[in-house]
Design brief:
By secondary structure, the protein is mainly beta. Helices cover 11% and strands 32% of the residues. It folds into 3 domains: 116 residues, no CATH class; 119 residues; 86 residues, Jelly Rolls. The protein is built from 4 helices and 17 strands.
Length: 349
Amino acid sequence: MLAAAALLLPALTSRPTAHDSITTRVTFDREIRAILDARCGACHSSRGSAPIPFTTYEEVRPWARAIKEQVLSRRMPKWHAARGFGAFTDDPSLTPLETALIVSWVDGGLPRSATVAPSTAPAASAAPSSAPVASAFRRKIDAFRLQSNLAITVRAKADAGVATLSAKADAPSVTAAWIAGWSFEPGDPLITSARISSASGPIATWVAGDPPVTLAAGYAIRATGTLRVELQRRAPADYESSYTARRSVLRLVTGSERPARRVVVEEAQCGVPPSRSATVLAIRPLLDRGGSTRLWLQRPGAPASVLGWFREFDPSFARSYWLARPVDLTPDARIQSDTPCRVELTLAR
């Protein structure tokens, strides 16, 4: 949720005191912990990408007012798509009800539990596990452990199990592998994004907080030759604690059979007709830092289909937005925008 945790620093001067009066029925154990687990746990856990865990009351309380300010301003979780413009399966942002509960809890004195004393309060639920994504092909999952502080090129075997690889690894390259899912675990909290590609072209983009991705049954991306993982890292904030970097872990769901529909990742210019028909599964705006654009699909004689409104673009968090309802892109259709732009499309053909 707070992968760019440096944004919290201005709010530190308004930390709650130990003697706040209780004026709300919302408690940490009953409502707030569940929200934080669901919306923040991917980053704010013992193995997450953010340096500040939000798994216990003691960890959350000093940051409570900062959390409130961040969710009210919609700066966290990191998500650059405006609410109400398009629908996405990977949207981590809080619902209005979740935001209201956090505000009520903070303004109401930060009660831990209505019925359980602090000394006997139940333990926080376990942090999200790093379990591999489910395979649409029921194939073996390949896991590659990568140095976390470099842009890495690794050679990966299609039938590999868990392998420890570095920039100088020289295992056999992928041959005729089809990738149907992926997940990424950063090795340190400064990693903001990862870009995965092979000799066949781009495969996937991961941004801090992203859940594992599993393509629909019968869909897969072709990967050949060398897998390349390029990492983006941010500068540490002054208040962040030191950490021991681990190796990052990339997990891929792979198969050897050709899928019913091949998935490709291609760049496109807004307003330019596609070269052939395809179904748009995900869209990744390619904007200048701070840029904004509204995107929609336009067909002759049909109403526009809103794809999304993307604001305050940050290249360090240039994620793919997976459409809740994929749209068909035919030669007579156009992805239109209110500003000149390029997009990267994940397409099924």
